[in-house]
Specification:
This protein has 20 helices and 17 strands. The protein has about 525 residues and is of the alpha+beta class. Helix 3 crosses helix 16, helix 7 packs antiparallel against helix 13 and helix 9 runs antiparallel to helix 10. The relative contact order is 0.11. One of its GO terms (biological process) is mitochondrial translation.
């Protein structure tokens, strides 16, 4: 039996070994084909998620909830290509560049699948900057990464992201504060449970690295190492800094004193009182922004969700200012059993650490990226500052799906099921559904001339349809129908009420409003 810790990669390897051993032993073709079928099914899980009706209902709820919040804040939607020239994506993602899918078209031109929705949006602004000097946009679309899948944690090679961005020149921290507010609104509306927004500033972090003695050329690589502190203990991150990044041990120890700091306004005050820190230009600029941001977040009633966390680095190279990510209780490392801690001995182990050592991970993240548009634009339309957030749909989905295993999820929105008693009354059921549809009521009936009564009630229970309209020949002859509340198990009202056929729509509307 598979252990809970057994990864998808291990299952694929084990099944592949079985297929090879069956072929080597000259097993029956049917046995080999069955083993190959299992192998292909496992490999399919590496690409993306499949959608049962239950899963799709959850995912659709996520999309509609997030879109509603985005629109409430004045965003318009735009679309960007799935394919980009490889050179467009090169140099934008730091160490994560190794996760980009590279392709080659018929003419030999090198292309890539989009890694995120941010860089394509920046290129869109560079091409259309004169038309959109200021814009709030949102986009919900798939992105692609050569990652090691962990489906229960929402990590796949093909997955959806929901992005909201504000582009344009505005007063400091106003747009940034609204984007953070939007992230909080979305996560609250999705009802994922308690969450925290970890927040930091790229200039503050860069300034701290400078004070600690990190050479300018090593600031980004060291930042990428610090970004792993939510997945690895400090000792392992420090080892990477020394062995792989070539950082001086004294500098690493000084960094360690800072990245353990987290808090709220009190941490801001503590850093402002540090004369060595505020003498650094980058640190001072970062702290000035944080003071304003905290002030605006308090007005927006979300300051209580914030954790000012100096270990937050965000590994992508294009961030220039405020950075943030949302985490839940499911986001962190699982507790080690019996005091045993998982160790990684190789860089390959570290690259694949998410699979066995972390939970869902951050469920939303983003920040300010003021220079990205300028990388693609000419002088007439370049330099549009931007700030945004990306919500990881699959990670939110994995949380909601785990909860849905314990509760029933309504896979469709049908409100009324039209049921016949005795004779099939197909045409009558069709006519009643037509009347309900015309009235804007979501209704269904069974596509059979003489369906069994119990089969029709089973559909109501399975699909959690709240009301049934029950028709029989004698009732129709009297111009009546019965309306039954399928959620009630009692007699009387639970058995349904008789209403005139002409009042059916009015009665159902009244009940559906309650």
């Amino acid at each position: 039996m598979d252990t809970p810790q057994e990864t998808l990669k291990e299952k694929i390897k084990k099944q592949g070994d079985l297929v090879r051993s069956l072929k080597a032993a000259g097993a029956e073709k049917a046995e080999i084909d069955a083993a190959v079928g299992v192998l292909l099914g496992l490999k399919k899980q590496q690409t993306g998620s499949s959608g049962t009706s239950k899963k799709m209902a959850i995912r659709e709820k996520i999309f509609s909830t997030i879109t509603s919040v985005f629109k409430k804040h004045g965003a318009v939607t735009i679309d960007t290509p799935v394919f980009e020239l490889k050179e467009i994506l090169a140099g934008k993602y730091g160490e994560d560049s190794k996760l980009i899918y590279d392709l080659e078209d018929q003419g030999g031109e090198k292309c890539s699948l989009r890694y995120d929705l941010t860089v394509p949006f920046a290129r869109f602004l560079a091409m259309n900057g004169t038309q959109y000097p200021n814009i709030k946009r949102y986009q919900i679309a798939k992105v692609y990464r050569r990652d090691q899948p962990a489906m229960t944690k929402g990590r796949m090679r093909e997955f959806y992201q929901c992005d909201f961005d504000v582009a344009g020149v505005y007063d400091p921290m106003v747009a940034d504060a609204e984007v953070v507010r939007i992230m909080c609104e979305c996560l609250t509306a999705l009802d994922i449970g308690n969450f925290t927004i970890k927040i930091n500033h790229r200039k503050l972090l860069d300034g701290i690295f400078e004070i600690c003695g990190v050479p300018e050329a090593k600031i980004r690589p060291i930042s990428s190492a610090v970004d792993k502190l939510d997945k690895l203990p400090w000792e392992e991150v420090k080892k990477e800094m020394l062995d792989e990044k070539g950082l001086d041990p004294v500098a690493a120890d000084r960094i360690g004193e800072y990245v353990i700091l987290k808090g709220g306004k009190e941490l801001l005050t503590q850093l402002l009182d540090n004369k060595e820190l505020v003498s650094n230009k980058n640190v001072k600029a970062g702290l000035d922004d944080m003071i304003l941001l905290f002030q605006y977040l308090e007005i927006f009633n979300v300051l209580d969700k914030m954790s000012f966390d100096l270990s937050l680095a965000r590994g992508l190279d294009y961030y220039t200012g405020i950075i943030y990510e949302a985490v839940t209780e499911q986001s962190g490392q699982p507790k080690a059993e019996d005091g045993i801690q998982i160790k990684r001995k190789t860089k390959k182990d570290s690259d694949e650490l998410d699979e066995t050592t972390v939970g869902v991970g951050s469920i939303a993240a983003g920040g300010r990226y003021d220079n990205l548009v300028g990388m693609f634009a000419n002088t007439s339309s370049g330099g549009i500052p931007c700030v945004g957030v990306s919500i990881g749909v699959e990670r939110v989905f994995s949380i909601l799906l785990q909860r849905a295993q314990l509760t029933s999820v309504k896979a469709n929105e049908v409100e009324v099921y039209v049921i016949s008693v005795g004779d099939g009354l197909l045409e009558e059921r069709m006519g009643i559904c037509t009347e309900l549809w015309d009235a804007g009521i979501k209704a269904e009936f069974m596509y059979k001339r003489k369906p069994k009564l119990q089969a029709q009630f089973t559909v109501c229970d399975r699909d959690q349809i709240p009301y049934a309209v029950i028709v029989g020949k004698s009732e129709l002859d009297r111009g009546e129908i019965k309306i039954k509340d399928m959620r009630s198990k009692e007699q009387g009202e639970g058995g349904g009420i008789i209403v005139p056929r002409s009042q059916m729509v009015e009665e159902l509307r009244k009940r559906l409003r309650n």
